[in-house]
Amino acid sequence: MMTLFFLLLFAVVSVVSAADDAFIGVNIGTALSAMPHPTQVVALLKSQQIRHVRLYDADQTMLLALANTGIQVVVSVPNDQLLGIGQSNATAANWVARNVLAHVPTTNITAIAVGSEVLSTLPNAAPVLVSALKFIHSALVAANLDSQIKVSTPHSSSIILDSFPPSQAFFNRSWDPVMVPLLKFLQSTDSYLMLNVYPYYDFMQSNGVIPLDYALFRSLPPNKEAVDANTLLHYTNVFDAVIDAAYFAMSYLNFTKVPIIVTESGWPSKGDSTEPEATLDNANTYNSNLIRHVLNHTGTPKHPGVAVSTYIYELYNEDVRPGPVSEKNWGLFDANGVPIYILHLTGSGMVLANDTTNQTYCVAREGADLKLLQAALDWACGPGKVDCSPLLQGQLCYEPNNVVAHATYAFDAYYHNMAQAQGTCYFNGVAAITTTDPSHGSCIFPGSGGSNRTMVNGTSLAPSSNSTSSDCASQYFYGGGAFVSSMIVGISIWSVVFL
């Protein structure tokens, strides 16, 4: 039994580790009449636990503000610099020296996006696109940074033709002289295809063919799902269909090992009279469902369980961006850092619980394994130094008397005791951040503004290898003889896999 429990725990750990690459990031546009100072931007990123950002340039002040934060940064070569870099190895090397080498390792630059949607918006630069990527990569090789910093270029999904059914999709063949060497480069450098995916535009341009629910990730009855007749794969949303179309388009060119990262996706929260579905509710629904879809590692029908990391477009509403009303209203926040809407993210992960009143809570993840919850509860009430006395029989938070409710209290107490720091609401994957106050009756949770604050000062984000549980931990155990096993396992491996 003990051996089986160890194996189960290590199996869970290996799955979590394998899936850790999946993330949600945000794009940071700057077309604001009152653009916040980079230090304010970084403060907002930290408050929202955003660990991945994409810049549309390599702004020096922003890169300095991001230093020593650990936030992973994609910097970009703007389109107006692409021709020069694509025609000169020396120009590319100078760009890398000025915008990358001057900032690493204190600023965690992990990728360079060379241009943006070049094939569809700047076709005259297409002949030098692959050269630009190669020149940038060569400069990284010379600096021994090529394994740390990937090089790619974002594409509009419009370069994929006949995207449904996905199995018949292919890239616009007029771009084969660019796409084939580009995909060879991405494959040889272990990089990824950057793709901008906008179900909003697919919906708007479909003239009613695409249902709104299908674009928004809303649940569909089986008879409403789109079925690829060639593969019999069922598609419940536009996003997955576009991603799989890209996979099939690459395989048509004999490239099957190039992963995809979505560099832009989102939904506008406001539009003019010709954009009736650009609403707060639809924007909230799309982005909330997108975040949940990515962080739950759902994957696509073609590659289930292989999550596609995605950057949401975008952090701020850009009030001076030209174009229709919707172009100005893709942001999650206004220029003052006030959320445009509060995302519906209960139980979905650790990022963008975007209530800037700081009222976020750490709860037991829905459907979490009860043995892992119990072990996490034991740790929180022991080495985690949470005062779990309110969970004792007859105390304010004893009812409901089950491991989910008690673990939620302990998780939230630890999370607030550690000042809601990054990584303090994880507990081996059985915890999640929410903006919904879990307080009930007279049981007031930490962070809710109530008076029932029962935390004690903690000293570390994770237990050390020689940590032991307190004697009181057994008072919060529910059922069976697994308690001793969970305690031994907790002592042995929580420090390796917990936070």
From TrEMBL:
Transmembrane segments: 476-498
Membrane topology of this protein: Lipid-anchor; GPI-anchor
Superkingdom: Eukaryota
GO BP of this protein: carbohydrate metabolic process; defense response
GO cellular component: plasma membrane; plasmodesma; side of membrane
Sequence ranges assigned to domain X8 in this UniProt record: 360-445
Protein's UniProt name: glucan endo-1,3-beta-D-glucosidase
Species this protein is from: Dillenia turbinata
